[in-house]
């Protein structure tokens, strides 16, 4: 049965861990979906496989193009699409327009946007009222890389209290889940206990309701990966070996 955002809330209540990964095309999405991933995020972290240095340059058009391919590969998982930098921060109407395009043009079921400050909470509330499911994202928010860097967030008492309040505000605005990125595990635990909606952690310890990783990190396809990523296989090595073998076989006229 297809996963819904209500299902994720039920799984939290039942203590059933939620499994999320990112995808950027049909082939990857199909494999992840068939392997039992519950939530597939078309994350703007796909910047890494498109050759961008940060997530900032990605356009809404690019996100929609990739989300359509991902959606075609998914039968069961909930598909969530990141709204890219400066396609939702300007105004509620800009956010409505961008999120509306994503849902209408890709067939994805939800959008994710970064930040839990008051204006963003208001935006989330308005999107939800309009029928657009929203996943929040607090802690390290990579679209703010030039302000925050990529450091762990929430290390001081003040910062950790602010992140907790942001997560609570996003829940009250109607978000169906919230990503907690690169924050101390103790803070992630506290947020997870205080919220009714599920927390999906990345670099936030083992006590979140679910976990998400960037698939290009998991598969060893990325040139670099953050310290909290677990690399389960090394596709860069495997692809290099396969292609080098092909190159030499063709040159030596061993293949075909
Ligand atoms: O873009 C992305 O992959 C994300 C996850 C790290 C949550 O936002
Ligand atoms: Na993202």
UniProtKB/TrEMBL annotation:
The active site is at 181 (proton acceptor). Pathway: Cofactor biosynthesis; (R)-pantothenate biosynthesis; (R)-pantoate from 3-methyl-2-oxobutanoate: step 1/2. Its main location: cytoplasm. One of its GO terms (biological process) is pantothenate biosynthetic process. 3-methyl-2-oxobutanoate binds at residues 44-45, 82, 112. InterPro entries: Pantoate_hydroxy_MeTrfase, Pyrv/PenolPyrv_kinase-like_dom, Pyrv_kinase-like_dom_sf. One of its GO terms (molecular function) is magnesium ion binding. One of its GO terms (cellular component) is cytoplasm. Binds 1 Mg(2+) ion per subunit. It catalyses: (6R)-5,10-methylene-5,6,7,8-tetrahydrofolate + 3-methyl-2-oxobutanoate + H2O = 2-dehydropantoate + (6S)-5,6,7,8-tetrahydrofolate. Mg(2+) binds at residues 44, 82, 114. Its cofactor is Mg(2+). Gene3D superfamilies: Phosphoenolpyruvate-binding domains. It comes from the Bacteria. The keyword DNA repair does not apply. Its EC number is 2.1.2.11. The keyword Oxidoreductase does not apply. Catalyzes the reversible reaction in which hydroxymethyl group from 5,10-methylenetetrahydrofolate is transferred onto alpha-ketoisovalerate to form ketopantoate. NCBIfam families: panB (TIGR00222), PRK00311.1 (NF001452). Belongs to the PanB family. This is 3-methyl-2-oxobutanoate hydroxymethyltransferase. The gene is panB.
């Amino acid at each position: 049965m297809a996963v819904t955002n209500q299902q994720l809330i039920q799984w939290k209540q039942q203590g059933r861990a939620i499994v999320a990964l990112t995808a950027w095309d049909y082939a990857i999405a199909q494999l992840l979906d068939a392997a039992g991933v519950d939530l597939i995020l078309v994350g703007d972290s796909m910047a890494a496989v498109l050759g961008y240095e940060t997530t900032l340059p990605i356009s809404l058009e690019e996100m929609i193009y990739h989300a359509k391919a991902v959606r075609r590969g998914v039968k069961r998982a909930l598909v969530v699409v990141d709204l890219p930098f400066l396609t939702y921060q300007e105004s509620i109407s800009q956010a409505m327009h961008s999120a509306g395009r994503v849902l209408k043009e890709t067939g994805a079921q939800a959008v994710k946007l970064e930040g839990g400050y008051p204006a963003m909470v208001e935006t989330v509330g308005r999107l939800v009222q309009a029928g657009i499911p929203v996943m929040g994202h607090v802690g390290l928010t990579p679209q703010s890389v030039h302000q925050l860097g990529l450091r762990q967030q929430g290390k001081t008492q003040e910062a950790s209290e602010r992140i907790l309040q942001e997560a609570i505000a996003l829940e009250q605005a109607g978000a169906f889940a919230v990503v907690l990125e690169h924050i101390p595990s103790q803070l992630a635990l506290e947020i997870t206990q205080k919220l009714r909606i599920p927390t999906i952690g990345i670099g936030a310890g083992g006590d979140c309701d679910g976990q998400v990783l960037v698939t290009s990190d998991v598969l060893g396809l990325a040139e670099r990966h953050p310290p909290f990523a677990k690399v389960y296989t090394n596709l860069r090595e495997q692809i290099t070996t396969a292609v080098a073998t092909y190159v030499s076989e063709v040159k030596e006229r061993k293949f075909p």
